[in-house]
Structures are given as structure tokens and as C-alpha cells.
Amino acid sequence: DEVTGKEKWPRGEEAVWKAGLRDVDAEEKTITNSIVNHVQTSLARQAYNLDNLGAYQAVALSVRDDLIINWNETQLTYSRKAPKRAYYLSLEFLMGRSLDNSILNLGLKDKYAGGVDKLGFNLEDLLDQERDAALGNGGLGRLAACLLDSSSTQELPVWGYGLRYKYGIFKQLISPEGQQLEAPDPWLDHQNPWELPRLDVIYDVRFYGEAKRSSDGSGRAEWSGGQEVVAQAYDVPIPGYHTKNTNNLRLWESKPKSGFDLNSFNAGNYEGAIESSNSAAAITSVLYPNDNTSFGKELRLKQQYFWTAASLADIMRRFKNQDKPISAFPEFIAVQLNDTHPTLAIPELMRILIDEEDQTWDKAWDIVTNTFFYTNHTVLPEALEKWPVPLLQHVLPRHMQIIFDINLFFMGQVEKKFPGDRERLARMSLIEEGSPQQVRMAHLACIGSRRVNGVAELHSDLVKTTILKDFVEFYGISRFGNVTNGITPRRWLDQCNPTLSALISSTLKIPKEVWLKDLPKLEGLLAHVDDPELAKTWAEIKQANKERLAHWVQVNLGLKINTNVMYDIQIKRLHEYKRQTLNILGVIHRYLQLKALTPEERKKTNRKAVFFAGKAAPGYYIAKLTIRLIVNVARIINADKDTNEFLSLYFLPDYSVSLAEVLIPSSDISQHISTAGTEASGTSNMKFCLNGGLLLGTVDGANIEIAEEVGESNVFFFGHLTPDVEDLRYQHQYHAIPIEEKCPALANVLNAVSGGLFGDGGVYEPLLNTIRQGDHYLLTDDFDSYIQALAMVDVAYLDQKEWIKKSIRTTAKMGKFSTDRAIQDYAQEYWNIESAKVE
Ligand code: 4GP
Predict the structure, then answer these.
(1) Fewer CB within a 10 Å sphere, N or C end of the chain?
(2) HSE (CB half, 13 Å, CA atoms) of 25?
């Protein structure tokens, strides 16, 4: 992927080379020729028996050719200009589908639609053939995907590094009883046209073995023996919007080092030989399906090291091609650690510099601490990674030595600054005492990085005042910053809601090519809020999007849903802190209220359909029980003829990026109702608001900044605030008030569930007990204000005229939340990189 300048280039006649190049700004004819060619040669099929899947594959391969041309130009530009580059290390990239996004970014959608039509197919049908690349769990992985899109769009020299899991996030099935079941996601079975296998880009990665410190006082060590595994690269081109810049996402696959172990094979141990080759392949076989939680599994540790080691080896090789002194490494390279998952990159770079590049400890540490940057995505204790020392010692003996050494030096510095403060030393140490001792990865990430950031204002403040408070006192505040998350408006508006995008362009009289790259331009909509024509079309588009969702539900689930009601949506991973439970208990409350009304009274109420979607981690019992409750409540209330005209409920299985693209544009209101201080940012809140859906939420994460932008009168806030949370929890423990007294409305709802209104109440006891006892997520504290907020939403929705205005205002003020802004924040405030435009 680079030109070394050591050879004449091109080798033969330049004119002949040039004549063979294809132009990306292709004519429709070039496109149809290319598709036909791929049908005939790449797929070995023919026109007369081509189905939609085959046609999709041929179209995808044709688009891939376009991407590769830009990708090549981009890599050439980066090699020639040799700018400082940034590398985004993320264990998750939740990309979703690529075809629609690629042709939109390339500006070729119309031509492809026309070409496909001439070949007798319909582009929309072909888009539907694509499987989601679901190499992520939720927010953290989708953010990585949005940031990559923006890095190319902003023409910044950024690459992503991740793992090529054979199985992405599991497929969610719902049993008739409402149980979540998990099935594997063999997303590569139909082949993946969006990747380029790089048989030549391979590195050896070692595990286990022995680390012997040298006796020459150099601090070096030799690490040998153990298991060696090969990392092979697959490259995924990331097109920018209306630019040639096409960055790279490099994903590693693990392979056995030499086919399989010939010695065992020859000794007649066929099974043993295969087993070791399987154990190598196992490293990248499956994405761990946990969101906002960490489990100390050995295979996960191996994934983390495998990926960071291969990525750093690759970065180092590219750097060395530039013939610069090693001390210049941080002048050319910034590495972003997406959460603590890649933190082993810190001791790994130390190892490379000391053991392989002959650097002294101090020089190596200087390079390391000027290279890395760390983003924290959660302050939830259960998500803070810790690795048992004995496990690290076993799997990565050299790295454990280095971590101990880092800690020794660091503790020395802390002792110097705060002499005699033993408690502080214990709190800040990289090693948590206990049996076994554990390595605190957030501490390692913090001290090994140049800067640290959270992902929304409130969250960044919490990082500074809670989990990393001591480090702020030690280093000073300037090491800690905030980069509020964003979303790419290309996928999350233009692609998922093309009619709204077109309406915005015609209203602003600005082509989308301009405002989609400069999202604050949306503010121009404010001048048109009172335009009745705009309001009418705005409402018609929302209606059409509801019908599109209803169609999807009809086709995929065989259910008919009402489109003439308010759509209220909560879609995200199932988690106690996200409080889907609060939402479903609110639905039950509404149902009980409706039942108590006369038919006449009911007619005056706001009609609505409530939608849920999201996956629970397979081992997360309480979250799975919440799904079960939702499904069974839906079963009862959707069948109740008294009320189902006024309230219906759906749990849409197997939530994915593609499903989000259908759900989000249809929403009137969406719920982001985490316990205050628990949701770091949230990003679907931004997606809904960008599409003119209003927000019902707690004063948490990026909800706060959204409200700052759109104005508090355009959002529905409820619930206790972050500073109250600790006190409330304390009271729950030591001065608990019975629910009947504290919150009778909630008690009534819990009794309805226990009493069997939605099937065997006993099933839900463990879930209900989390509220009755301890109530860590403050449902008993927030329920009443939640119900009030829902009532305010109802009142507001009945005034459709005003509602539409709120909706337009909301979209208009979402300019801040583009990942174009976020990636520029990282580029300028953290990485110190500049754009490198491909001409
Ligand atoms: C998520 C946070 O929970 C979410 O608030 C945030 O918007 C997102 O990261 C991106 O920053 N965290 C995770 C995780 O997905 O696994 O920790």
C-alpha cells in the first residue's frame, strides 16, 4: 500500500498503463458493462438464470471496482504526501450494509439505479439482498463506523484496525414464550464483496511461552516459545462523501502458522494437529456479544492482543518505510484506543521499542505516551476491564513484566507528588490487590496516553470526577477532554430518509452535496418553520415513513400495524441502566388506565404504537426477562379489542443497523431514559432527532446537549439528576420506603404483572425484585415523573400543527451532531493531523 521510491514506477510504458485505467465517474454504459462482466466472469453465471442475490453480487463487485480505484489513489496520495496519520483501533465496527452507502457517497446512485433497471432488476430489491456487517454490539461499534465515514469525507488520513470475526453479533430469535434465543450469524457465507483479502499482509503473533530478561542491564527481554499464530489482513474500502478519499478499514483474521502441526500429524496425531490449527482460527471466530460489560475470558484476551500486535506491527512497518528515526514516531502517528479493549497496545509498543528497536525505557515511554489517545465510553463499573494477573502472566509473560515496570515507575512518581499517601497509591496503582490481583486497564490506558476523552459533556465530567479523579489531580486537567459523539448524516438522513433529505435541499435551496458535509446549514430550516406548505410535506413524509415501516413489519413478521397513530420507539441494547423496564411498565400503566376509561373517554386520548427492538447479552438473565415481559404484554394488549385501537405494542426481533434505518425515520417520539449519569452519550438520540423525531429522555448523556441545541421546549425531560443518584441509592439501602407508599402507581403495575395479567406472574419475579429490592436504577424514584412526561407528550402530539414545528426545529438544530465535527475535534485537539486531499 505504499510507494517506497526505491524503484522506477511504473515499470513499463506509462501510457499503456494509463489507457487501461477505469474512470470512477463512469457512464451508465460503463456500469452496465461492468455488471454484466462480473455476472459472466466473477460469478460464472448468465443472464437467463440470474436471481436477485446474483445481481446484487455483480453490482456490488462493480461498485467495489470503483471503490478500489479511489482507494488506490488515496493510499498513493498518503504515501507521497506522507502526512501524519491516525489509526483508530476498535474491537467493533458495526458497519451495516455497504452498497447503498457506497453508491450514494460516490454520487453514482442514479446511474446504478438506471443501469440495474436496464438489466431488468430493481435496485431497491438488490439492496435488500445484502447482509449487514454486524461486527459490533451497539453504540461503541456504530460510532466507529460513523467516524470512519467522516474521516474519508473530511479527507483525513485515518485507518481503522479491527478483527474480521467469522460470526458477527448473534441473530436474535424470539420463542413463542417470549424468550430470546441466539443463533449464529454466518455473515460471510455468501462471500463478502466489500473486502479485499491481502494474502501478502501477514504477521506472526506469539502467545504464552517464556520471557527472559537480559542480564546486560539494558532492560531488554527475550520472549520465546509458546504458540505462534498468523494474522492476515482484509481491507475494506471506506468511501467518503463526494470525494475521492477512500480510507481503509483493515481487519485481521487469525490462521494457524503452518497449515497444521506436521510433527503431530506424522506422529499419527491427526486430531491433535487439527486441534492446534483450530485453536488459531478460533481467535477471530466470534464477536463477544457483550455491550457495556466485560468478562475476563482468555479467548477475549487473545483477541485483544492478536489484534493490537498485528496492527502495531503493520503501523511500524509502514513507518519504517519512511526512513525516519524512531524518535519521530509520534510526529507521524497517532493511535486512538477505542475504549480499553486495545490497551495492550501500550505494553506492546514498549516491547517493540525496547526489545526490538533497542530503545531505552525512558525513550520508549516518551514515544508511547505521545502516540496513544484513549476514549472512555462508559463509567459503569461492570464495564471497566480488569485482567487477572495470573492470566496475563500466562498468556503474555513479557507484557506482564512491562506492566509491572510501568507501574513501578508510575507509583514512584505518585509517591513523589503525594508523599506518604498510601491510599492514593493503592487507588491509582495499575494493579488492584485481591486474589487474584488484577490489572486495571483504564488506568493503564490513561497513563500510557497523551490525552483522554469522554463522549459527551456530562460523561467527560464524570470521567474526571469519578473513575479518573486521582489522575486529574496527578496530571492536571489539560490531559482530559471531551469529544461529544456524532453520527454520519449520509447514512442517518440521506440514505435512510431520502424524501426528507430532498425536502430539506429544496427548502434550503442548497444542494445536499453541500449541507450533508456542513450540517449546521440545517439551521436555515428555522426560517421556514411557519411555512404551512413545508409543514404539510414534512408531515406527509413522516406518514410515508410509517407506512414503509408497516410494510416491513407486514413482510417480515406478518403483522398488520396501524399507521394512523403516534409512533413511540425505544431501540438499543437491552440493559438495566437503559431502563427498557421503565418503558414497558409505563405501557402497562397506560393499558390499565385505558381499560378504566369509558369508550367515549378513550376516544379523546392520544393513540399510539410502541416499538421496542434490541438484543440482550446471552448471559444477561434480567435483560432477557424484560424482553419476555414486553413480548407477553404485547400479546395481551394487541389482542384486547377494547383498547388496541388506542395502544399497541411491538417487539421487533433481531435489531440491526438496517432495521434502525427503517425504524428511525418513522418515529414521532423516541425514548432515551437511562438512569441519570449512566448513558455515556447515546447516539440513536441524535439519529431520531435528525429525522425530526422528538426526544423523551432523562437528563443524561448527549440528551443534554441535544436539548441545549434544540431548546428545552422541544424535548421532554423527566427524572432525577445525576448528583441525586448516589443519595437516592443510599436511601434505598438504609431508609427504604415500601413501593405502595412511595409510588402507588408503580406498585399497581407491578401487582398486575405478579398477579398474572400477562401470563404466569412468577416468571417475572426476579425482574420485579430488582425494583422492589435495592432498585439500583431508580425506577421507583423516576416512575411518576416519567408518566407525567408521557402525558405531556400526548398533549403536545394532539396539537399536530405545533408538533410539526417542533419536529422541524429539532432537525434544524442538529448540526452539531455530525461525526464530521467529531472527527475534526479528534484531528485537531488530539491527533494533530491535517487533511490530505486526493486530487
Ligand atoms: C457506548 C455507550 O453506552 C453509549 O452511551 C455511547 O454513545 C457509545 O458507547 C459511543 O460512545 N458504550 C458501549 C460499550 O457500547 O460497550 O461500552
Answers:
(1) C
(2) 3
> Which amino acid, one-letter code, is at 362?
D
Q: Which cell numbers hold the place of 79?
A: 504515501
Cell numbers representing residue 185 in the block: 450469524
Tell me the CA–centroid distance for residue 703 and ligand 1, in Å. Answer: 14
The residues that bridge with 627 in the sheet, in sequence order, are none
Confidence at residue 1, expressed as pLDDT on a 0 to 100 scale: 42
* Alpha carbon of residue 216 to chain centroid: 47
Can you tell me the distance from the alpha carbon of 316 to that of 203, in angstroms, rounded to the nearest whole number? Answer: 12
Name the grid cell of 203: 504477521
Dihedral over alpha carbons 98, 100, 102, 108 (to 10 degrees): 160
SS (H, E, C) 669-696: EEEECCCCCCCCCCCHHHHHHHCCCEEE
Across-strand partners of 224? Answer: 210
The C-alpha R_g of the chain, in whole angstroms, comes to: 28
- Ligand 1 close to Cβ of residue 454 (< 6 A): no
Q: Would the pLDDT of 155 be above 60?
A: yes
**What's the CA-to-centroid distance between 668 and ligand 1, angstroms?**
24
| C-alpha dihedral sign at 591, 595, 597, 600 | positive
Cα dihedral sign for 433, 436, 437, 440?
negative
C-alpha cell at 497: 430518509
Report how far residue 802's alpha carbon sits from residue 799's, in angstroms, rounded to the nearest whole number: 6
Give the tens place of pLDDT for each residue, 597-606.
Answer: 999 999 999 9
User: At a CB cut-off of 8 Å and minimum separation 6, what does 132 contact?
Assistant: 95, 96, 97, 168, 187, 656, 657, 658
> What are the grid coordinates assigned to 215, written together?
542480564
CA 346 from chain centre, in angstroms, equals 23
Pairing of strands 438-440, 431-432: antiparallel
Which phi and psi (to 5°) does residue 781 adopt? -80, -30
Angle 532-557/498-508 helices, nearest 10 degrees?
Answer: 170
pLDDT (tens digit per residue) in 356-411: 999 999 999 999 999 999 999 999 999 999 999 999 999 999 999 999 999 999 99
The protein residue whose alpha carbon is closest to atom 9 in ligand 1 is 140
The CA-atom distances, in angstroms, between 544 and each of 309, 467, 497, 662 are 49, 46, 10, 11
The CB of 378 under 6 Å from ligand 1? The reply is: yes
Lookup: cell for 756: 398474572
Rounded (10°) CA dihedral 769, 772, 778, 783: 110
Give the global pTM. 0.96
> Among the residues of 321-359, which ranges form H helices?
329-332, 345-351
Cβ of 140 less than 6 Å from ligand 1: yes
Q: How long a stretch of residues is the chain? A: 839
- Is residue 578 part of the annotated active site? The answer reads yes
Phi and psi at 327, nearest 5°, equal -65, -20
Q: What is the mean pLDDT of residues 541-562?
A: 97
Asked whether the beta carbons of 402 and 312 are under 8 A apart, the reply is: no
Tens of pLDDT, residues 603-632: 999 999 999 999 999 999 999 999 999 999
- Asked if residue 218 lies in contact with residue 230, where contact means CB atoms within 8 angstroms, the answer is no
Query: 752: Cβ–Cβ under 8 A, 6 or more apart, which residues?
Result: 588, 592, 758
Q: Is 209 left (phi over 0), alpha (psi -120 to 50) or beta?
A: left
Strand-pairing partners, residue 649, are: 610
Alpha-carbon gap, residue 728 to 777, rounded angstroms: 10
- Helices 28-37 and 52-81 pack at an angle, to 10 degrees, of 110
Active-site residue among 171, 302, 351, 377?
377
The answer to whether 239 and 74 have CB atoms below 8 angstroms apart is no
683 catalytic? Reply is: yes
| Nearest CA-CA partner of 252 in 296, 297, 310 | 310
Region 133-141: what's the mean pLDDT? 98
